[in-house]
Amino acid sequence: MQTSQNRATRTFMDYESISQAMDGICGLYERKLKELNPAIRNITYDIADLYNFIDGLADMSALV
């Protein structure tokens, strides 16, 4: 994954299954939400919000 056009933002992750990789993507988004909203204890989102987060990344690829 790459969060911006800067190549230094590239991050590589390894998961044992596709299911774990999908959980990892959700976890990335949830951590970002907590970072952006530190005072809110319970944050909810729907699939459209998650898709917008993914679409906002410079790059996300998966090798399966």
TrEMBL record:
Known InterPro entries for this protein? EHR_sf, ERH
Pfam family for this entry, one:
ER
Annotated Gene3D superfamilies: Enhancer of rudimentary
What is stated as this protein's family in its record? Belongs to the E(R) family.
Q: What name appears for this protein in its UniProt entry?
A: Enhancer of rudimentary homolog
